[in-house]
Each structure stands twice: as C-alpha cells, then as structure tokens.
Amino acid sequence: MSSSHRIGVAQGTALYVGAVLGGGVLALPALTAREAGPASLVAWALMVAFCIPIAGAFASLGIRYPDGGGVATFAAKAFGPRTSAPVGWLFYFAVPVGTASAAIVGGAYVADALGGGYLMSLAVAAVLLLGAYISNWLGLRLSGGLQLLLIGMLAALMIVAIVIAAPDSRSENLTPFAPHGWLAVGNAATLLFFAFSGWEAVSHLSGEFSNPRRQLPLVTGLTIITVAVLYLGIAFTSVAVLGSNPDRSAVPLTLLLERGIGESARAVTAVAAALLTFATVNAYIAGGSRLGAALGRDGDLPRWLGKGNKAGEIPKRSLVVLASLTAVLLIAAAVLDIRLDPIMTAASACFVAVYVAGLSAAVKLLRGSTWGRIGAIVSLVAVLIVFCFFGWYLTLPLALVAGAKAFQHFSARRPVPPQDETPDADAQPLPQTLST
Length: 436
Hints:
The chain is mostly helical. It is 69% helix and 0% strand. The longest helix is centred in the middle third of the chain and has 33 residues, at 265-297.
C-alpha cells in the first residue's frame, strides 16, 4: 500500500483531537466551577499536565509497534500473545456503548433546542452515529478529511465564544478563589478525567500513518496544544464571565455566545454539540473497527472479521458488527428507558480498564526511554486510583475479560482454517480526493 493511501499529519491531528475533545467542553466548565469555584481552573491545568505523560506513552508505543491492534498489540508485546484478546475485547465491545453515550449527549443539546425530550435525543443520536458509520465505510481518508473540517469549525466557534465574552470578565468572579477548600480541586479533577481520555482509541490508528516515527510525535503534540488551548480558554472565560453560581446553566458555551449573538446561541450550541459528537464518535469508530479486524486476523475474534485488516483497507465487516451492536443498544435504551448515566459509566469502566492495560504495557516496553517510562508509571498509578471508584460496574470489564479467555480456550481446540491470501473483495483503496 503506497503512502498516498495513508493519513497524514493534518488528518491524523483531526482524528486525535476529535477523540480527545469530547462533549465535556459543553458542560464541564459549569460542573467543575460548581464543585470547586474558581479554583477549578487549577484542576483543568492539572488535567492538561496529566494528559502529557499519557499521550507520550501511547505515542511512544505507537511509534515502536504501529498496528491496528493498538492497545491489544501493546499488551501482547509486553505480556504475551494471549493477553491481546482480553484487552481487545475490552475496547472493541465498549465502542458501541461509548459512542452511543457520546451521541446521546449531542442529541440532548439538539433536542433541547427543538423542544424535544429523551426519545428525540435518541433519534438524533442514531442519525449522528449513522453518519459516522457511513463516513468510515467510505474510507479513512474521507473520514479524516471530514474530521478536519468539523474540528476546524468547532474550534473556530469556541474561539469566537471566548473572544465575544472575554471583555465581560470580572475579577470579582475569581474571588474567593477556593470557596470550598483546596480538596475540592481534587473532586473537580476527578470529574474532568474522562474529558481528556481518547488516547486509547486513536492508538489503533498508528499503523495508518505513512511515517509513524516522524508523524506521531507531531500529531500528539499538536493535539495536546489544541485541546489545552480550547479547554483552558473556555474554562477560564466561563468562570471569569459567568462566575461560579450553582444556579447557572449547565451549558456555559450557550451563555458565552449569547453575549454576542443573542437568542440564536441555543441553536448555534446545538449545532456545535452535534459537530463535536460526530467528530468524537467518528474517531472512536475508526479506531474500533480496525481493532476488530486486527483481532479477527489474530484469531482473538472470529476470523471472518479479519477482512480489511491491512493498512489502507476498509474493515467493513467490523464496522457492520459495531453498527449492529450500537443499534441494539439504542433500541434497548428507547424501549427500556435506559438513561445516559449508566450507559456512560459502563463504557468508562471498560475504557479505564484499557488504560490500565496499555499503561502497564508501556511501563514494561518503554524501558529504554527513561522519561517515557516515568510518565507511564505516574499515569498508571493515577488511573488505578480512579478505577477503584466504579463499584459494581467493574463486573462489566471482568465479564469481557472472562469472555475473551473463554473464546481463546474453545477456539484453541478447533483447527485453524487456512488463511485467505486473496485480495479482500470488500476492501477498496481509500479515496485520494483529499490529499495530505
């Protein structure tokens, strides 16, 4: 596969930013200010700093082991091939849950602007997810180009909100700085943890770069800078302009935009939420579908799923499986009235388990990199602390690990079918209409 069919720095950065820059930017500035007052800005800064060693660890692993298996590949390199299935299952089967929860968040903002309820949120979520699956079905280059456009539009909107509202900043909104004590900063940081996740999702795209060793550090650095500027800018402006009043709106971006565009801010925020949601689920689906194909290739999922596992090919069978699972979840949420909180918490439990595996692998594999290994150790300790707070939701990642081990056990007893070396009829070269 020629390098012209791979993703480059611009599209890679768009996919990375889309995965890390989640819907939290629409709500978390208000939630954290309510928790810790102006001192919540310290929590935002700490989380940006904490993001650096995590991103560095996953980038270093991606440079050394560029493969669609992502974290599953890293775990296999560190702890043996039989560890890839449990880690891969944790992420692969959490993708439908995580993308559904993210899409429901975006759908809720759109439904609010239209005066609808939870069922409308689910309907909008279904439309957003369908668009993301179609985007990935058409090819990662088109997906990456679309991602670049959406992230650029969203970043511009956030910058406009900051510029419009910044003149209304008041120093009295920053005092007292820590009205609930400094321990509240830790509580706010806990709320922010998942706003900065996403590095585990895009680790599966490392094999899609034409030159991972040169491009991954640049993409990682650009992503950190972009996310830091946008998150910290919105967080600071939100506190300085709106204060820490617990009765204020949970959607500060709307209130900031109202300073300049009036009542139309609600509609604009709804569009922003939809774009941000699409960008996030688009990146997760891109990484998850390639992971499924890699797991099928290695026999950790049914081998027919392995079609399209090569760099530049489209893993259509894996996309169909993920789309089907997501559809079942949305239908169940509508019929059984399953709300967002349990869906999001279940996905988070699996993703944090993936972080534990990936960072554990980094501690072992990055022995030749002093700073990389120190960063991995610090990050692993912090993630393990968070992992303990999920309670009975921990049964979900444990069940997936057990399922993966059971699949390995029974599949090992069956004869391995001969590998099909013929070209994948479903795979198509990625469109070259969007050049790097």
